[in-house]
Amino acid sequence: MSKVVLRESPNEIPAASPAQRDAAPAGDRPAADVEMARVLGTVPFRMALDSSGAGIAHWKHEPLHDVVEPMNHHVIMAYNGAVQRMERRSGRSVAIGTFRPGAVIIIPEGSSSRWDIPKPVDVVQLYLPQATLQRVADEAAAPADLLERTAHPDPVTSRLLLSAADVLEGNEALDTLFRQQLMDLLATRLLAAHSGTPNAIAPARGGLAPKTLLRAIERLRSDSDADVSLAALAAEAGLSRFHFCRAFKDSTGLSPHAWLRQHRLEQAMNMLRDTDESVVSVAATLGYSSQTAFAAAFRKLTGESPRDWRRRAR
After folding, report:
1. Residue of 282, 284, 287 whose CA lies nearest to 269
2. Edge-to-edge strand order for the sheet containing 93-99?
3. Contact, 115 vs 86, CB < 8 A?
4. Which end of the chain lies in a sparser environment, N or C, as judged by fewer CB atoms within 10 Å?
5. Kind and range of the H or E element at 143?
């Protein structure tokens, strides 16, 4: 690949100005995953999205010298690679930063800028809808605005994002619940650390009432088509999603996602030990997208493959 020279004259940078950015109707903007696929020219290493385009994506891409157009989500990135310098231009504004572990990038919804990154990149991205940020901000009576950040030190947010990609298991219920929890947690963190008017959100303390906890657990245990999304669990408890997660963890010692993950593992062990169902059948019954996804999740929690565990348990 030939060497690409960074453009020095602002007039040569086709990035949208703030006025142009504000004039672009939100409905005409692409979803974050669509724009990232266009700019990066590749497919994500791993991705989990919901119908709104909100979600998590792990990308590994080549050097980048292009304009990221306005998107329909806030994009928060955590870098996971060798230290390197990069440049970001928005109109006549130039930001030069250093990519390193522990640094984050924030591209607010509707923002556009040119990026010049000279080396390959390994990055995990969160696509956060404004509706989610606004809901969490409303709970804290805080403005729902985010600052642009370019390789900004934030090891807490970085660690949360980088670990998120490894938790995705190829199980729709588990991945959806985890993604929803992460969205709320990171929205809270972003408002506290990356807002024009930083606010500390102090969630209510204390666990769920016994009957409320029982209803939540019954929903999580259900083998029917019961909705086990965070929204459904919180609505039944009469709490916000964020406060429900805190109260559930106070009561059980586990987040809703971790509780459901443990429950699915126990179900898998019971089926492997007490029935002659094939591993493929067990994976399908528990909602995994494939035998491979199930085996990887099982090994992560037990250190053994399903077949090895079955032989040892019988």
Report:
1. 282
2. 64-68, 113-117, 84-90, 93-99
3. yes
4. N
5. none
